[in-house]
Design brief:
This protein is mostly helical and 283 residues long. Helix content is 78%, strand content 0%. It is flat, with a radius of gyration of 25 Å.
Length: 283
Amino acid sequence: MSNLNDHSGALGEGVRAVRNRRSPWAVRGELSNTAMMALAVAGFVLPCLAWIIVAGSGWVDGIFLPTLPRVLLSVQTWAREGDLFSDIGISIARVYCGFALSLIIALPLGIALGALTPLRALLEPVIDFSRYLPAVAFIPLIMLWVGIEESAKVAVIFVGTVCQMVLLIAGDIARVPNAPIEAAKTMGASNQEVIQHVLIPAAWPAMFDTLRAMMGLSWTYLVVAELVAANSGLGFSILKAQRFLQTDKIFAGILLIGLVGLLTDQAFRWLHRRAFPWHHLRS
């Protein structure tokens, strides 16, 4: 009887643990897709409501905080009378080119740093130092080295992201457990084979998340990049609007950058789920 009571008690504890785990407010609790979508929409709607209330109440001068309808009208006017879609396309091209250039350099270098300890000891301190140098400080040198054409805008984004990307990718590689590496070495795998068949496949999900984060960082450097003798692009339009105190257009440009960046981020998230479905399974 006592064994039966113990078994029933343990079963009850297990059921309660499962229920607690499924509670939305538990650590890593479960939430339906519908509830997640509703909360995501609410996360956008609530700030917009606060904006409408504060800007419409007259508490803040419209020069400092334009109303949401005024900002939306600015977007409409920009699209109808200006070069909105051209500016969006140019800014996207600059960000993607800067990101791609960083990726070409950072991916192999980061993998090498994460895999080879002597190389990491040699290069990690100087790269760590370099990532704290502000990209905007390099603008005079970039203009001197590559001129003021499109390559200069791309170079600013590259300078702002490449060191961060190298170190994060190196960290993703370094976090691969030793067990599969030792197993591969025991079976006679060379360094190149360990890197190619063990380290890179094991670290790919984390590296893909790193690339997603670096794409977001690339967008934050857009306005800085378009300081370099630009005459088009979303960042340039924001800076131009600042000169004439067109705060509605400044807000419009900021929101458009955020929207395009969000769509890019969601594309990365979708690709991550398609490429690594096992990484999103919940036990």
